[in-house]
Design a protein that fits this description.
By secondary structure, this protein is an alpha+beta fold. The protein is 57% helix and 12% strand.
């Protein structure tokens, strides 16, 4: 209904109850929901603080869940704080901090994947504390004399129901970092569908394994559209030498 201040009041009551019960899962969710309410109000500094609280609390309970249903539920509630924080930081032009957050969220997703496939003692060696900061990311690009490109899909809009923004960072060996946002709201193709169809078109492996090449008439158009979304916005930041 747009009554964000009243919503925040209820979220704060929820947070107090979760804290009293010692329920970290609900505590993290309350922080996350509060963050989105502040984001909708345009109170970015408060949203930033609350989203960081949500991530800190929710990451502290990772690895303690054994049942798959709990892991799925936890993943669903924890994707939002990272993306919300990315939006808040980008809206404040804190581009480098936003890049660190997207890497942090990517690392958590990677650890979740490992937990599904490896014994817990093998997963324990991975830690969020080992994530590279901006300086280390720049050093990686310099050491390999390569341009690094990072993509992040952001859900915005009513109840985060649709993919509508693509954030792209380019890190050069010189240490220069550039950022380009791409609006996906008005695209003719749904972005996820476009990715899946493009994989099929060139016969590459997706999450479910290898797929046979499709004979669809519009394959070329789909691949051209994907290039338009992923490469053209950053083409001016990419090296002319293919070896780079």
């Amino acid at each position: 209904l747009g009554d964000y201040l009243r919503a925040i009041d209820f979220y704060e009551q929820s947070l107090a109850i979760a804290t009293e019960l010692g329920n970290l899962d609900l505590e993290g969710i309350a922080y996350s929901n509060t963050g989105f309410a502040y984001l909708d109000l345009g109170r970015l500094l408060e949203a930033e603080r609350v989203f960081f609280n949500a991530i800190t609390v929710q990451e502290s309970i990772r690895g303690n869940l054994q049942e798959d249903t709990n892991k799925i539920s936890l993943f669903d509630t924890q994707v939002n704080p990272y993306q919300g924080l990315e939006q808040v930081l980008v809206n404040q032009n804190k581009i480098e901090a936003a890049l660190e957050v997207t890497e942090r969220g990517r690392a958590r997703a990677f650890i979740d994947l490992l937990e599904e496939r490896l014994p817990s003692e093998q997963v324990d060696q991975f830690s969020v504390g080992k994530l590279p900061d901006i300086k280390q990311i720049q050093q990686i690009a310099q050491a390999h004399q390569s341009v690094l490109v990072v993509y992040s899909l952001i859900n915005v809009g009513p109840e985060n129901s649709s993919l509508s923004m693509l954030y792209i960072w380019v890190v050069k060996p010189t240490g220069e970092i550039t950022f380009e946002p791409v609006n996906l709201k008005d695209q003719r193709f749904a972005f996820n569908d476009l990715l899946q169809q493009s994989r099929k078109a060139i016969g590459v492996r997706g999450r479910g394994g290898f797929t046979l090449a499709s004979n669809a008439v519009n394959e070329t158009e789909q691949l051209r559209r994907l290039h338009e979304l992923l490469i053209e916005p950053i083409a001016k930041h990419l090296p002319n030498d293919p070896n780079q």
